[in-house]
Amino acid sequence: MGLVHDITFSFRLLWKNRGFAAAAILILALAIGANSTIFTLVNSILLRQLPFGNSDGLVWIWSTRTDRDKAFFSIPNLIDTREQATTLSAIAAFANWGANLTESGEAERLQGVRISANAFEMLGVQAAVGRTLQPSDGLAGSQRTVVLAHGLWQRRFGGDRAMVGRTILLNGGAYTVAGILPRYGRCLVPSVWSC
């Protein structure tokens, strides 16, 4: 009988102090909304598994220097690490790359990535159309190739499957489209990938 009496008494007090009750309900609603929003962001960015095979086995390796905590690997350090690593099955490199697309209409600035040719194979990523980058694409003197993100392919080229094998201009240079990546949502943000 005590619990029912306490609840009834609480509602009577809240009814008498309507301003306090409204403020308390508003604060609770805002707190619950903020909590839900933060959890959604944390879940989508940190907790959700990446859409790659064996994604729990992926690691990000940084080099360290005396003037900063994190630095990118130099090419000689990358080669040494590949040769000496005994606990890693594969190592791939990447670097951000700003690319100006001047093909099919007005120029567009794209977010791109330069990656080592084994990166897609290491991640288990297959092209939706065409192929991904191959080791021969990264050799000196080889024809420059690029893989397009699904979103760019749909938006800029109308989803034309014949884009594979065509040449596009990026930063004034000719690149042959090797393939189109599948739709990965926001996981793979860059629009173009090249060696």
Structural class: alpha+beta
Largest sheet: 7 strands, mixed
Stretches where pLDDT is under 50 for at least 5 consecutive residues are none
From the spread of the alpha carbons, the general shape counts as elongated
Strand count:
9
Give the topology string: H per helix, E per strand. Answer: HHEEHEEHEEHEEE
Percentage of residues assigned to helices? 25-40%
Computed over alpha carbons, the radius of gyration is 26 Å
Question: What share of residues are in beta strands?
Answer: 15-25%
Query: Residue-averaged pLDDT, rounded?
Result: 83
- How many domains would you count in the coordinates? 2
| Assembly level | single chain
Distance between the termini: 75 Å
Q: With helices defined by DSSP (H or I, 4 residues minimum), what is the helix count? A: 5
Write up what this structure looks like.
- The chain has 195 residues and is α+β, with helices and mostly antiparallel strands.
- It folds into two domains: 2-47; 94-194, no CATH class.
- Helices cover 35% and strands 23% of the residues.
- The chain has five helices and nine strands, in the order H-H-E-E-H-E-E-H-E-E-H-E-E-E.
- The strands form two sheets. Strands 3, 4, 5, 6, 7, 8 and 9 form a seven-stranded mixed β-sheet that branches. The protein has a two-stranded antiparallel ribbon with strand order 1-2.
- A hairpin with a 6-residue loop joins strand 3 (94-101) and strand 4 (108-115).
